[in-house]
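anyone seen this seq b4? input:
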Amino acid sequence: MKILAWLVGLLCLSAAGAGAAHACACDSISPAEGFARTQYVFVGKVLEVKGHTWTVDVDRVWKGADKLAARVRLLDVYKDMDCEFYFEPGRTYLFFAIVAKSSRYVYYQPEVCNLTTALRSKRVAGPHGAIWLEDLIVENYGPGEPPRGEDPWKRLPAEHDRDDRD
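predicted toks r here
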């Protein structure tokens, strides 16, 4: 009977769709710990999904605003592993991210075992009771700021701009 109740609970959780699903076995961390250990904390809306790469419009940044552009690319380096992420196009998330691949064109990755989650999907302990995670971030770190970094993806050569004369 306990197993049946556990399975029903698991099905309910999966149907609820947390949005940033991953199945890693992670220790619980506080928002302060999550904030301290990551490079970037920002809110953004997923515009495009190509496999396990997402294009995100960044709205507000609490950590890393000087390097993040208004549009970033996220890469899931845990694809096909227990820790892979899934993000829905059109949905807005609070991202705790690190640099995944830095070359001419930067990719970021949601930091595994941190607090990346869809907005209004995770409640945490606040000074006056339970509060949405993004509201606690605003309470503790201010309203955030717009991203100020340059978008290296804007420099990609267009197909028609190539000079094929050799």
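The chain has a mean pLDDT of 81. The two ends are 73 Å apart (CA to CA). kinda curious what u guys think
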